[in-house]
Design brief:
Number of domains: 1
CATH superfamily: Aminohydrolase, N-terminal nucleophile (Ntn) domain
Family: Belongs to the peptidase T1B family.
Organism: Hevea brasiliensis (Para rubber tree)
GO biological process, one term: proteasomal protein catabolic process
Shape: globular
Structural class: alpha+beta
Strand content: 25-35%
GO cellular component, one term: cytoplasm
Helix content: 25-40%
Radius of gyration: 16 Å
CATH class: Alpha Beta
Keywords: Cytoplasm, Nucleus, Proteasome
């Protein structure tokens, strides 16, 4: 029951992800960060198995090995190529995997790329994947407009989260919001209804 969604506003891109780590009927933790910071101006939101999400760090590894920072389009296409190669070679664990690449370039500004489990790449202004997308996409279709301010975008995000929590059968309780703009990629806020107690002592 994962959900990752995001949008492009006026000078920024914003991504939201649930923070539940689940397997079958078990919730392992409720503070899993599914949005990776690839570099100072790139975020990568992913749904799927946790081990496969780490696989996307190959973008950062490529930059480290070659000493060349990738542009937004280059990072998105590199990720798509890695996923396509893994899919065609039959590597295990990449059959149910969706990505959103949220970046900011000085030349082109903010952008959002959507990559699905069969390595199809699209540049979009708003997008969502996971079961929560059935509700967040309808809210964004109704309320999203180009040139949104951060305040308007956060208000829309809150509307999406409320809709997911009230309509999805097994709705994730917590969400993390991150933003990327000319000042860099950073965590913006959390929307929590359940505190993680996995590390708490038991009586």
């Amino acid at each position: 029951m994962e959900c990752v969604f995001g949008l492009v506003g006026d000078g920024f891109a914003l991504v939201v992800a649930d923070t539940s780590a689940v397997h079958s009927i078990l919730v392992h933790k409720s503070n899993e960060d599914k949005i990776m910071v690839l570099d100072s101006h790139k975020l990568l939101g992913a749904s799927g198995e946790s081990g496969d999400r780490i696989y996307t760090k190959n973008v950062a590894l490529y930059q480290f090995r070659n000493g060349i920072p990738l542009t937004t389009a280059a990072a998105a296409n590199f990720t798509r190529g890695e996923l396509a190669t893994a899919l065609r070679k039959g590597f295990p664990g990449v059959s149910d995997f969706d990505l959103g690449c949220f970046c900011y370039d000085k030349e082109t500004g903010p952008s959002l790329y959507y990559i699905d489990y069969i390595a199809t790449l699209h540049k979009i202004d708003k997008g969502a994947f996971g079961y929560g997308s059935y509700f967040s996409l309808s809210m964004m279709d109704r309320h999203y407009h180009s040139g949104m301010t951060v305040e308007e975008a956060i208000d829309l995000v809150d509307k999406c989260i409320i809709e997911i929590r009230s309509r999805l059968v097994v709705a994730p309780p917590n969400f993390v919001i991150k933003i990327v703009d000319k000042d860099g990629a950073r965590e913006y806020a959390w929307r929590e209804s359940v505190k993680d107690t996995s590390g708490a002592p038991t009586a």
